[in-house]
Amino acid sequence: MIKVELKLQKISQPLFLREKLEIIYGDDENAGKYITRIEDFLNGDIVVDSPKFIGGDKLLHNNAEVKVYITKEDAAYQFFSVIEKIQINNISGYVLHISSDIERVQRRRFARVEIFEEVLVSRLPEITKKNKISFGFLDWKTSVTQNISGAGVLIRSEQQIIENNLILLNFGLFPELNLPKIIAGICRRSEIKNESYLCGVEFIESGNLGKFIKQPLLKCLPASIKNFDARIQNNLVNYLFQQQIKLRQKGLI
After folding, report:
1. Which CATH number covers residue 193?
2. Per the structure, how many domains does the chain have?
3. Element (H or E) spanning 192, and its range?
4. Together in a domain, 176 and 196
5. Is 174 within a domain?
6. What is the CATH number of the domain that holds 79?
7. CA 60 distance to own-chain centroid
8. Bridge partners of 154?
9. pLDDT tens digit string along 21-56?
């Protein structure tokens, strides 16, 4: 008889059939990322359908040691597991053997939501004695967001933006949050795809502006970048986390 739920210690709610799980194979940035759904519960373990590959470079294999993430309404949870391919009634399936304590994890900051909106982006120039700041030195170009988290945004841009470039982002996303009109950022990774730049940009919180931007340039930049403080960033983090939960519940991610 198929069990419809499994209660686990430290998790606020039971696991349910067809609930989505995220499987991570590997520890570095090239880790393989998969999603799957719960099909059954077997002797305290979790039977899932064939994991669907969604990104990364490492391919999952039988008896691989993996990390499993579960997202509930109150928080995200993780545990370590060994994934085993099995046969049940002549039907292939996979079992996640829980091999560690379940931990509540703070993943809100990294909750990422796909959103495709035009934004204006301007690279910041390097200021030297020979290269003075002049009026209109900001050169705004249109880019398109790919996804966003509380920590940063992935954009596709026609202009050349490379690693460690400082930029300003001008967008009107999420008006209900009253975000500053312009936010400063630093490009953390960049690659060329389909003749445009795919850039991962980290937001610069106001308290850290001085670590990245020299004072002569900082004085000339729009004042709103100083309004993106820890409180505003936390509001964005929580908002995106709730949006991600709603999308998961609808089966859209």
Report:
1. 2.40.10.220
2. 2
3. strand 182-193
4. yes
5. yes
6. 2.30.110.10
7. 21
8. 147, 200
9. 999 998 766 788 899 999 999 888 999 999 999 877
Residue 107 CB burial class (10 angstroms; 0-12, 13-18, ≥19): middle
65-93 pLDDT per residue, tens: 999 988 877 777 889 999 999 987 777 88
Phi and psi torsions of 223, nearest 5° = -65, -25
Distances (CA, A) of 177 to 22, 50, 233: 29, 39, 10
Residue 169 inside a domain? The answer is yes
Whether the CB-CB separation of 104 and 84 falls below 8 Å is answered with: no
**Which letter does DSSP use for residue 211 in this model?**
H
Round to whole Å and give the CA distance between 199 and 176: 26
- How far apart CA 186 and CA 210 sit, in angstroms, is 13
C-beta separation of 109 from 86 below 8 A: no
**Residue in the block written with tokens 């300003």:** 168
Residue 70 belongs to domain spanning: 5-105
Its pTM surpasses 0.90: no
